[in-house]
Specification:
Structural class: alpha/beta
Number of strands: 8
CATH class: Alpha Beta
Radius of gyration: 16 Å
Shape: globular
Helix content: 25-40%
CATH superfamily: Imidazole glycerol phosphate dehydratase, domain 1
Length: about 200
């Protein structure tokens, strides 16, 4: 009888002068999420990562949102990226690559990623002059900062590009859903070895 596969789970915490972040993730979950960051629109976006990624995800953040959401978004992204990287382990058998086009009404976002172990972010999602979303407010520019911090901490290569769209909410949500679906595809185990000619993804 073959041994049961190792659980792909992780817990990470991060405490700074501006924030306290707690993250738990199970890459082989069923999309059950519990997200509370103090920024409702950001909660909605992080929830998309868990639900559409098929991850069980708990994120709790206590930050200085009365000043700005920047610190909370950045530190959440870093902590989530670190937990994701830890949960992946040695990446044996994962598909590694994933890409696709993801629509939300008039918005269309292209996402491609590689669980490469080499952090890189290419983000081309321009906005005109737009208002922050929700209360406390989420500045749409923080989406780029989130993905950059997450990709760096997770050690992945991530490309996100806007193909069409006018509604800011739709564009950002399409990006989060697209990244989630690609992560779900890339972490899927379908083989036995590490998918790299070097024998390691780190």
């Amino acid at each position: 009888m073959s041994p049961a596969p190792a659980a792909r789970t992780a817990r990470r915490t991060r405490t700074t002068k501006e924030t306290t972040i707690e993250v738990a993730i199970d890459l082989d979950g069923s999309g059950v999420t519990e997200v509370a960051t103090g920024v409702p629109f950001f909660d909605h976006m992080v929830d998309q990562l868990g639900r559409h990624g098929g991850f069980d995800l708990t994120v709790k953040a206590d930050g200085d949102v009365e000043i700005d959401a920047h610190h909370t978004v950045e530190d959440t992204a870093i902590t989530l990226g670190e937990a994701f990287r830890e949960a992946l382990g040695d990446k044996a058998g994962v598909r590694r690559f994933a890409s696709g086009l993801f629509p939300l009404d008039e918005a269309l976002v292209e996402v491609a990623l590689d669980l490469s172990g080499r952090p890189f972010i290419a983000y081309d999602v321009p906005f005109g002059e737009v208002l922050p979303l929700g209360t406390p407010p989420f500045d749409p520019q923080l989406a780029e900062h989130f993905f950059g911090s997450f990709a760096t901490a997770a050690a992945i290569t991530l490309h996100v590009r806007l193909k069409a769209g006018r509604n800011t909410h739709h564009v950002i949500e399409a990006a989060f859903k697209g990244v989630a679906r690609c992560l779900r595809d890339a972490v899927r185990v379908e083989g036995g070895g590490v998918p790299s000619t070097k024998g390691v993804l780190a």
